[in-house]
Amino acid sequence: INAVSEGIFSGMIIDDGTEYILFTAPISSGSSGGALFNDRAGVVGVTSASYTEGQNLNLAVPIPAHKHIAL
User: Fold this and answer.
1) For residue 58, what pLDDT is reported?
2) Are the beta carbons of 21 and 60 closer than 8 angstroms?
3) Under a CB-based contact definition with an 8 Å cutoff, are residues 56 and 7 in contact?
4) pTM for the whole thing?
5) Binned average pLDDT, 10 residues per bin, the chain of 71 residues
6) Distance CA 57, CA 24 (A)
7) Is 23 exposed, middle or buried, given 0-12, 13-18 or 19+ CB atoms closer than 10 A?
8) CA dist., res. 67 & res. 39, Å (int)
9) Where are the alpha helices (DSSP H) in the chain?
C-alpha cells in the first residue's frame, strides 16, 4: 500500500558528520528508503531514521547528499 502523510519541515541537523532533514510527517518502522516530498511533489530526501524519544521527529538524507554517497 502506498500512502502519503503531511508534515512540517523542522530544519537541518548534522549528526556524526552527516546532514539530515528533520521533519514531522509520521513514518512507520521499516519505511527507511522512502521518498520525502516537498509541497510541489518534488523528492527532497530519502527517509532514514526516527527519534524514539519524541513524537514524529524523523530524519531524511537530503537528495544532494544521497547522490554524493551513491557515487
Assistant:
1) 93
2) yes
3) yes
4) 0.80
5) 85 92 88 88 90 84 70 40
6) 5
7) buried
8) 21
9) 63-70
